[in-house]
Specification:
The structure is a single chain. The protein has 473 residues and is mainly alpha-helical. The chain has two domains: 37 residues, no CATH class; 416 residues, MFS general substrate transporter like domains (Growth Hormone, Chain: A), CATH 1.20.1250. The chain is 67% helix and 3% strand. The chain contains 23 helices and three strands. The chain has a three-stranded antiparallel sheet with strand order 1-2-3, covered by helices on one side. The radius of gyration is 22 Å and the shape is globular.
Length: 473
């Protein structure tokens, strides 16, 4: 049995495979990616598990600051507006970082890139725990916040293992459970590292939280590198790597399909990021809920909805595409687009509902409205990332990087709107953000028209089509 190196990792080519449906050995042999000294043979489900665990923790460490904004503000003497800047800063490096790592994952393989990111994030999280000045703290947490770029790495990794008809569900499970890491941080961290924390290294709860999550991140980096395999076969790996050139990246990044999905991700995932970093402060300040654990628990209801419901968004997209079922009269025959459009409209309506709920003065009504916003985000994000790998099967990392990177812009801008000092109250910002989403929905309506949608992977805003075939939905 011959072997060689794929992306610098030991692998063999001629291996027996088992039919995934019957469980029986397939006749003949085909080329695969199985490391000679791998602890276990990776399958698509084991890859999905590994990627999901890695991203779940990345999301936890990304927003590990959110439950501790109160004590951090006291120690560093931060105003409410400065807390808003800190929440916004958690997203500053994500756009470029996601675009870059999406391309790097196509080029060098997801396991290597994922491990590198987890390792340096862990180092800087530990460093932030020892910061004595706010400048050092801010700079180190800015680097820790790049943990969010692992999203596109995992999207690329999962797409390299699953077939087109399963992509929406698989990516939805990955991203949904992964995004729920923010809820895990909001629920677990302030309970484990409570205000009365007294440990062997730190007597300050948030410093201890940042230190120990950093240690776990470094350990997880080693696990991901040891167990991860870049693709299900060497042919698939080669096809993806071949598409990872600069010219190919520019082409795919400027297609109508890429652009509209990236903007749609601004108003969904960008919104989710902004809420994850802001809601604990909102429930505490907007309703005079000074109990840190209670405010974080209220905020976690949004994160649970936005994370755990995301697989439904991907599953519905897959189901409609397989059944070729129209759910609205618009965009006939464009089944994934129909579901994406419906879910985007729901997000806009839910944001106006968030303002109305806040103005009612009843915190539980506002918590319920936040849950609905999270549900809209989940369905939309699942729908969007069911489309991405289906439209661009050999450039999923590059396109996911563009969509995921541009999408994070919402996470930078929206917190500044929520905390804007010129607003009459903390509830009004949600309606303003909702109104800003309407042009994106209108652009989606234009691109999702069948005559345009069928050319959305060839036609774009920059350059002419090179005649590449349109991928089937």
């Amino acid at each position: 049995m011959g072997g060689d190196r794929v992306d610098g990792r030991d692998s063999v080519h001629l291996v027996d495979f088992t039919d995934e449906r019957s469980g029986s050995p397939r006749c003949g042999r085909r080329r695969g990616v199985v490391r000679v000294n791998s602890p276990i043979r990776m399958t698509k489900y084991r890859t999905l598990l590994l990627a999901t665990v890695g991203f779940n923790f990345s999301f936890l460490i990304w927003f590990s600051f959110a439950p501790f904004t109160g004590p951090m503000a006291e120690e560093f003497e931060l105003s409410l507006a400065e807390i808003g800047v800190l929440a916004s800063a958690a997203i500053w490096l994500a756009p470029f970082g996601r675009i870059l790592t999406g391309w790097l994952s196509d080029r060098f393989g997801a396991p290597t890139i994922f491990a590198i990111v987890l390792a340096y994030v862990g180092v800087f999280s530990i460093w932030s725990a020892f910061a004595e000045s706010y400048a050092t703290f801010f700079a180190t947490r800015l680097i820790v916040a790049t943990a969010g770029i692992t999203f596109v790495i995992g999207i690329q990794h999962v797409s390299e293992w699953f077939e087109a008809g399963e992509l929406g569900t698989a990516e939805g499970i990955y991203a949904g459970i992964g995004n729920a890491g923010a809820a895990g941080g909001a629920l677990v961290l302030p309970r484990v590292f409570s205000s009365g924390w007294s440990g062997p290294i730190f007597d300050t709860n948030w410093r201890a939280a940042f230190f120990y999550t950093g240690v776990v991140s470094i350990l997880l980096a080693g696990v991901y590198y040891a167990f991860g395999e870049a693709a299900k076969s060497s042919e698939k790996r080669a096809a993806t790597k071949e598409k990872a050139g600069l010219r190919e990246w520019i082409f795919t990044a400027t297609r109508y399909g890429t652009v509209v999905l990236a903007l749609a991700y601004v108003m969904t995932f960008g919104l989710e990021l902004s809420m994850n970093g802001w809601l604990a402060t909102y429930y505490r300040e907007g309703f005079d809920t000074q109990n840190l654990v209670l405010a974080s628990t209220f905020a976690a209801t949004f994160s649970v909805a936005a994370g755990l419901l995301r697989p439904i968004g991907g599953y519905v997209s897959d189901r409609l595409a397989r059944a070729e079922r129209n759910i609205i009269p618009l965009f006939t025959g464009r089944y994934r687009e129909q579901w994406t459009f419906v879910s985007l409209c729901f997000v806009v309506l839910a944001m106006f509902g968030m303002t109305l709920a806040g103005l009612s003065g009843r915190v539980l009504v506002a918590v319920g409205a936040g849950f609905l916003v999270g549900m809209g985000c989940a369905f939309s994000e699942g729908a969007i990332f069911a489309q991405v790998p289906a439209m661009f099967p050999d450039s999923s990392g590059a396109v996911a990087g563009v969509v995921g990177g541009v999408g994070t812009v919402g996470g930078i801008v929206y917190p500044l709107v929520y905390a804007a000092p010129f607003l009459p109250n903390l509830h009004t910002g949600y309606a303003i953000v909702g109104a800003s989403m309407i042009p994106i929905v209108l652009l989606a309506a234009w691109v999702f028209q069948p005559r345009i949608a069928e050319r959305a992977t060839d036609d774009g805003f920059v350059g002419e089509s090179d005649g590449a075939p349109v991928a089937d939905d």
